[in-house]
Amino acid sequence: MSFILPDWLITLVAAALPVSEVRGAIPLAIGVYGYAPWQAYILSVFGNLLPIIPLLLFLGPVSDYLRRFSWGDRFFSWLFARTRRKYIQDHENFGLTALAIFVAIPLPMTGAWSGCAIAFLLGFRFWPAFAAIAAGVLLAGVIVTTAVVGVQFLVF
User: Fold this and answer.
1) Distance in Å from the first CA to the final CA of the chain
2) CA 156 to CA 153: how far, in whole Å?
3) What angle do CA 132, 30, 13 make, to 5 degrees?
C-alpha cells in the first residue's frame, strides 16, 4: 500500500523548503498539478511564509546555545562582527527595504530562508523583519507566477 500526499500539500511543502520556496512551488502547482495561477500563488506564498516565524524566533536561541561552546562562540563572534561591520558600512540606508527586495528576487540563494538568516545576523527586530520578508515573498510570488503564465502562453 502506497501513501500518496495530496497535490496541495506537496505544493505547500515545496514552498516551505529552503531549496525550492515559491520559485519551485508555483511552477510545480501550475505546470504539474494544473492549478490555476491564483491557486498556485496562494498555496505557494502561504507555504513559503510558514517557516518565517519559527526561523526568526529560534535562530537567536540556537546561536545562544551554540555560543556556550568555545568553537561556537568564536564562530558567531566572527560572523556577527563581520556581518554587522559590513552592513553598517555598506547598507545602513537601505535596511528593511533591501531585505524585502533581496527576498523578492527569484534567484537561487535569495528567498525567505536567506532573508531570515540576514535579518537575524543584522539584528532586525521580529515584526519589521517579518513584514519585510513577507512583502518579499508576496512580490516573488507575483514575479514567478507571471513568468510561469507568460511561458505557458508562449509555449502553448
Assistant:
1) 37
2) 6
3) 55
